[in-house]
Design a protein that fits this description.
Pfam families: TAF10. This is Transcription initiation factor TFIID subunit 10. The protein is an all-alpha fold and 101 residues long. The protein has one domain. 64% of the residues lie in helices and 0% in strands. It contains 3 helices and no strands.
Length: 101
């Protein structure tokens, strides 16, 4: 029975943390505009009047794009490291579109 109470307390903590996070999204301006997120959500058939949820999707999308760009940069660096070094000490890093896939 005590285990059930601890489970409920943990759920309450999770709900509280989620509520705090969603409230903090009201003060945050994401990189991806709300209108753009709303457009693509509506295009996929999802309607939501809650700005917090729209910003949550924007933050998740921003994180995904940042991870893809970082992975592409690491791939580019690894590919350039495998090539025989040029006489120049620093080479400009160029990420090509095919590195994203």
């Amino acid at each position: 029975m005590n285990h059930n109470r601890q489970s409920n307390d943990g759920k309450h903590d999770d709900d509280s943390a989620l509520s705090d996070f969603l409230a903090s999204l009201m003060d945050y301006t994401p990189t991806i505009p709300d209108e753009l997120v709303e457009h693509y959500l509506a295009k996929s058939g999802f309607q939501c009047p809650d700005v917090r949820l729209i910003r949550l999707v924007a933050v998740a999308t921003q994180k995904f794009v940042a991870e893809v760009a970082n992975d592409a940069l690491q791939h580019c660096k690894a590919r350039q490291a495998a090539v025989v070094k040029d006489k120049r000490e620093k080479q400009q890093k160029v990420i090509s579109f095919d590195a994203c896939f």
